[in-house]
Write a structure and sequence with these properties.
The complex is a heterodimer of chains A (about 100) and B (about 270). With about 100 residues, chain A is mainly alpha-helical. Chain A has three helices and no strands. The longest helix of chain A has about 30 residues. Chain A is elongated. Chain B is an all-alpha fold. Chain B has ten helices and no strands. Chain B starts with a helix and ends with a helix. The chains are: A mainly alpha (about 100), B mainly alpha (about 270). Chains A and B meet through helix 1, helix 2 and helix 3 of A and helix 3, helix 4, helix 8 and helix 9 of B.
């Protein structure tokens, strides 16, 4: 049976996602509202911060899950998590296209 | 006003996505390209941000219901993230017409798979609930990992190429071939989408293909829409919502094909 029932584990991962999604929402909203009154680079920079937070959220989620697996001495899934993390970090570093 | 329109679009896509369990992200890149005049690559990159937002908002709800198989999701993410990162990197070498054709094809494929299931995207029977009000999932053991990983590589590749989540590929494969209950397959696919989209979105971002001023109102709308949809989903007969989604997907596929045939820029 696959281990679905780990309430604490699920809750920790859910928390990361919720903080990321809510944080992104409020930052983006702030950017939009500021943009109604201010016409310079500031609203755009606020919105950029929201985009970056959204891009970072899944990375943090993988890191947190990986650490939790290692703490449970679940080496196999700990290794898998850090494998996923490695792919994400590589795509962040080498994603410098031809723009 | 453009921002208000984009908030509405995001809200609508997020609501439909959460109600049907089929990510609304599939609507965003074609609508941005066709109706907002955004070049297809920027439309894809921008849509990816909204796709991550939907995934984060809705899977935090699924996780609280304990219907997500984190181990299975993490394993398949090895393949989806790899596929997404590689195609996001290669997308610059794809001709715009190829991207639009693929997007139209994927919209058609998704519509057909939904119609073949008779519009059913959730388990036929109500999930059993135990004394604590928690959903009970029958025991299962995921099978045929190589097949699942292969399908995930393709789903991830398409995600990085088209700015979509890839649920219409992963959910049937997990459900039919890997022996995973439909409810778990849907929640787990949703869970994986955030990481998959992030792997390619970072590449798009570095290339300057994410339009921040478009992504912000879209994300605000998508966030509100998916939260509302996730709350309404258990209480609403989703069949007609699914048909509405299919109708929009078919319209967008037709519109894309028309653009390809007439050779006009989308």
């Amino acid at each position: 049976m696959s281990q679905l029932r780990e309430p604490a584990f699920d809750r920790a991962v859910a928390l990361v996602l919720r903080v990321g999604a809510f944080g992104c929402f409020f930052i983006m909203l702030a950017g939009l509202l500021v943009g109604l009154f201010v016409h310079n680079r500031i609203p755009g920079e606020i919105e950029r911060a929201g985009v970056l937070l959204m891009l970072a959220t899944p990375v943090v989620r993988v890191l947190v899950a990986g650490v939790l697996f290692l703490r449970e001495k679940d080496w196999k899934y700990g290794a898998i998590s850090f494998g996923v993390l490695a792919i994400l970090l590589l795509s962040a570093v080498f994603g410098i296209g031809e723009h | 006003m453009l921002s208000a329109l984009l908030v509405l679009l995001g809200f609508f896509a997020g609501l439909l996505g959460a109600l049907t369990g089929i990510g609304g992200g599939i609507l965003l890149s074609p609508i941005l390209a066709l109706h907002f005049g955004i070049p297809i690559r920027e439309a894809i990159g921008t849509s990816l941000v909204a796709v991550i937002t939907t995934s984060a908002a809705s899977s935090s709800v699924h996780l609280q219901r304990h219907t997500t198989d984190i181990r299975l999701g993490m394993t398949l993410e090895l393949a989806t993230a790899l596929g997404a990162a590689v195609t996001a990197y290669l997308v610059g070498y794809f001709n715009r017409n190829v991207l639009e054709g693929l997007l139209a094809g994927f919209l058609l494929y998704s519509s057909v798979t939904i119609l073949l299931r008779g519009g059913k995207v959730k388990d036929a029977e109500e999930p059993a609930v135990n004394g604590d009000g928690e959903t009970v999932i029958p025991p299962y053991e995921p099978q045929r990992y190589p097949l699942g990983l292969g399908a995930s590589l393709i789903a991830g590749g398409l995600s990085g190429l088209l700015g979509i989540g890839g649920g219409p590929i992963k959910v049937p494969v997990m459900y039919i071939f890997m022996n995973v209950p439909l409810m778990v397959a849907t929640a787990t696919s949703n869970f994986m989408i955030g990481v998959t989209a992030a792997a390619s979105a970072m590449v798009y971002y570095r290339r300057g293909d994410i339009l921040v001023e478009i992504a912000a109102p879209l994300a605000v709308g998508v966030f509100l829409g998916s939260l509302l949809g996730a709350r309404l989903a258990p209480r609403i007969r989703t069949k007609y919502v699914v048909y509405l989604l299919v109708a929009i997907m078919l319209y967008l596929a037709g519109h894309l094909f028309l653009h390809l045939l007439t050779g006009r820029a989308a």
